[in-house]
Write a structure and sequence with these properties.
The chain is mostly helical. It contains three helices and no strands.
Length: 106
């Protein structure tokens, strides 16, 4: 079995910032979700973001298992793929969410 050399301070800082972000999201959205019947409960956005954090942690663990020399060889291809994804976000017809008109909260 391979042992991992992990920068524990960096991992702790990332975990603390993530928890702070989740707390801020819950604090900012819980009242809105509680008042609006569409969301079901006050922790709607909290649950949604916890799922995203779990997916990100799984991706972090998966990426840490890949040999860095392999990633170094494939870096230009990974960079082009990322740039292509960023460009597709800017194309309106490829968007998953269609917003017909900007709305104002007031």
């Amino acid at each position: 079995m391979m042992t991992l050399n992990v920068d524990k301070q960096l991992l702790l800082i990332i975990a603390m910032l993530t928890m702070l972000g989740i707390l801020m999201i819950y604090s900012a959205t819980s009242v809105k979700c509680e008042k609006d019947a569409r969301y079901g409960d006050s922790m709607y956005y909290l649950k949604k973001n916890l799922v995203r954090v779990a997916i990100a942690v799984a991706g972090l663990i998966a990426a840490s298992q890949v040999d860095y020399r392999f990633m170094k060889k494939k870096a230009p291809l990974i960079l082009m793929f990322g740039a292509l994804l960023l460009i597709t976000v800017m194309i309106p017809r490829l968007s998953l969410i269609h917003i017909s008109e900007p709305t104002r909260p007031y």
